[in-house]
Amino acid sequence: MSTNPISKIEPTKEQTGWHNKLILGDCLEVLKQMPESFVDLIVTSPPYADSRKNTYGGIHPDNYVEWFLPIGAELRRVFTKRETCSIKRET
């Protein structure tokens, strides 16, 4: 009898095509396409409000939370019960 704590989980039909990939795109649009309870790890570096205005177009600090909430909801939707999220933030 195997005591290996790591078992291979086969993807469902809906999940096929999303495994072992780096995905480049608008995170909100990409997340909406992903199946629920599918992601174990997300590493993200969201725009830094107005501090990187020339690079990202800027988000006024007063609007940042409102801007991030729909993204946060999608992150939560796609996470499995084993999730880890790392948000890189610079000040």
Structural description of this entry:
The chain has 91 residues and is of the alpha+beta class. It has a domain at 35-87. Helices cover 29% and strands 16% of the residues. The chain has helices at 27-33, 53-56, 64-78; strands at 39-44, 79-87. A two-stranded parallel sheet has the order 1-2.
The secondary-structure element order is HEHHE
Q: How many DSSP E strands?
A: 2
* Total of DSSP H or I helical runs spanning 4+ residues: 3
First-to-last CA distance: 52 Å
Q: How much is the average pLDDT?
A: 75
Radius of gyration: 16 Å
> What composes the largest sheet?
2 strands, parallel
Proportion of strand residues = 15-25%
Shape: elongated
Trace the largest sheet across and list its strands. Answer: 1-2
DSSP helix fraction: 25-40%
Low-confidence segments, given as residue ranges, are none
